[in-house]
């Protein structure tokens, strides 16, 4: 019997929980937000999620496996700050197990990144550092 495809939303929330715990432990704590930052936030890591890709599961359950790509955008008031937040987020994501009820989550892996960039569309200008990751989720 084929199950319903797994939802990406609890997986994105699990990423947020891991990042929030790590980023709150920094000397100057910051938050992890999903989708966008608040207008007044100049130091934050934003998680951009995806509904994921259904990977072929077993013949008995074609929709059981899910691969989820995410992008982390670290925002700071300078390039060094944005890079430091991206580094802290990467360490947390790659070394802390993700927990989603009823699912077994593979350790995330990094698939791409971009150089730090200045965002002149906001005032004062901010610096952003982005990296893309993926992880696989299977039934527990």
Describe the protein.
- This protein is α+β, with helices and mostly antiparallel strands and 140 residues long.
- It has a single domain (9-139), classed as 2-Layer Sandwich (STM4215-like).
- 24% of the residues lie in helices and 35% in strands.
- The chain contains two helices and eight strands.
- It has helices at residues 9-24, 79-95, and strands spanning 31-34, 44-48, 53-55, 65-76, 103-105, 109-113, 117-119, 126-139.
- Strands 1, 2, 3, 4, 5, 6, 7 and 8 form an eight-stranded mixed sheet that branches.
- Helix 1 (9-24) packs across helix 2 (79-95).
- The mean pLDDT is 92.
Characteristics of this structure?
alpha+beta; elongated; STM4215-like; 140 residues; 8-stranded mixed sheet
Structural class: alpha+beta
Could you give the count of β-strands?
A: 8
CATH class: Alpha Beta
End-to-end CA span:
17 Å
How many DSSP helices? Answer: 2
CATH fold description: STM4215-like
Average pLDDT works out at 92
- Report Rg: 16 Å
How would you spell out the order of helices and strands?
HEEEEHEEEE
Low-confidence stretches: none
Spatial shape: elongated
CATH architecture: 2-Layer Sandwich
* Main sheet characteristics: 8 strands, mixed
